[in-house]
Design goal:
Elements lengths: L5 E7 L6 H15 L3 E7 L6 H11 L3 E6 L5 H11 L4 E4 L11 H9 L4 E9 L4 H17 L8 E8 H7 L9 H8 L3 E8 L11 H13 L4 H30 L7 H34 L6 E5 L9
Parallel strand pairs: 1-2, 1-4, 2-3, 5-7
Antiparallel strand pairs: 3-8, 4-6, 5-6
Helix pairs in contact: 9-10
The structure holds uridine-5'-diphosphate and magnesium ion.
The site of magnesium ion (MG) has 5 residues, from loops.
């Protein structure tokens, strides 16, 4: 059993501009806290000098560890690797760009000492983010809550502390499309929130372009509920009922009055709308089928190129 009390997991992807400052800020906070700790950096296939910088720091600082991926696997996977490699009794997940202030960690540790197993950071305000991101995030979390019956806390990111018990439980969830903030909630245990103001990115730019963000948002929904599949049933039911009623009306006109209905334009319109709905529903089914396919392949979540700073592995490297 290791003697480390607190592991700090820091996923990083092309963060050479901030990573040294992040190291300094974390170091300062953790030294003041008086706990034994490790700083576990996961290099998610950065194409810049992030990994070299951390490897350099590890030479003179034995609290620094590096897990170096063979390529970019994505933020959620990097955090997962962090949980796999962390040795501490408490594991803190924090972004590399200093948007999650390290100074909040002691407050999380305090709650943990009070007996909470998950202490998540709740953003009461976000600084320096676009109105678009704030509005979409606000709406998204409410929509997700509606779909998942309020099981995922609103306005929280991955900035949180989890106890060893939770970390071990998470290792039993091997799913490929990972929405960690929901999964951690799913495993349960005693949860508490710590409120904080989310800062601006210290340097560099976001590593979550719109495309990645949409994929992530889709994971939140499709990995947590199959309600979207029921949409087909509901829409189908409504449409076929109204179609049948309309048919009765048309028959009535034909048999009992002298009026006839004309109009191929309306037929085309109805056709386009209904075909559109069918395709959307096929797409939704496709989302689930694609996810099943990924699970069935059973590939590992990530591939590690090398690790640095872990005592047990020293000879291998
Ligand atoms: N990140 C990562 N792999 C990726 C994208 C991002 O490890 O493919 C890391 C990134 O270095 C940062 C964290 O995930 O530490 C959050 O990313 P970012 O700050 O770019 O996202 P945002 O705060 O803009 O949503
Ligand atoms: Mg950020």
């Amino acid at each position: 059993m290791s003697s480390v009390v607190c592991s700090i997991v820091i996923p990083m992807y092309n963060e050479e501009e901030v990573i040294e400052e992040t190291y300094r800020r974390l170091k300062k906070v953790m030294d003041q806290s008086g706990e034994s700790y490790e700083l576990l950096f996961i290099n998610d296939g950065s194409r810049d000098r992030s990994a070299e910088i951390i490897a350099g720091l590890a030479e003179s600082d034995e609290t620094v560890r590096l897990v170096d991926f063979s390529r970019n696997f994505g933020h959620q996977i990097a955090v997962t690797a962090g949980m796999d490699y962390a040795q501490g009794q408490a594991v803190v997940i924090i972004d590399a760009d200093l948007q999650d202030p390290p100074e909040v960690i002691p407050r999380m540790l305090e709650k943990w000492r009070e007996g909470y197993d998950v202490v998540y950071g709740k953003r009461i305000r976000r600084q320096g983010e676009t109105a678009f991101k704030k509005v979409t995030a606000y709406l998204y979390y409410r929509f997700l809550n509606l779909l998942t019956n309020g099981n995922i806390p609103k306005d929280t990111g991955d900035f949180r502390l989890i106890d060893r018990k939770v970390c071990d439980a998470m290792k039993q969830l091997p799913e490929k499309n990972r929405f960690l903030r929901g999964m951690i909630n799913w495993v349960g245990f005693r949860q508490a929130a710590v409120e904080y103001v989310r800062d601006e990115r210290w340097a560099g730019e976001t590593k979550y372009p719109l495309k990645k963000m949409l994929k992530f948002a889709a994971d939140g929904i499709f990995s947590f509920t199959y309600k979207p599949l029921k949409l087909a049933t509901y829409i189908g039911f409504i449409l076929s009922t109204s179609g049948f009623l309309y048919l009765l009306y048309v028959l009535y006109l034909r048999l009992f009055t002298s009026r006839t209905l004309t109009g191929w334009a309306s037929i085309i319109a109805v056709n386009l709308v209904f075909n559109g709905i069918t395709l959307v529903i096929l797409g939704i089914i496709g989302e689930y089928v694609g996810r099943i396919y990924e699970e069935v392949k059973g590939r590992p979540l990530y591939i590690v190129r090398k690790v640095i700073g872990f005592k047990d592995n020293e000879e291998e490297n």
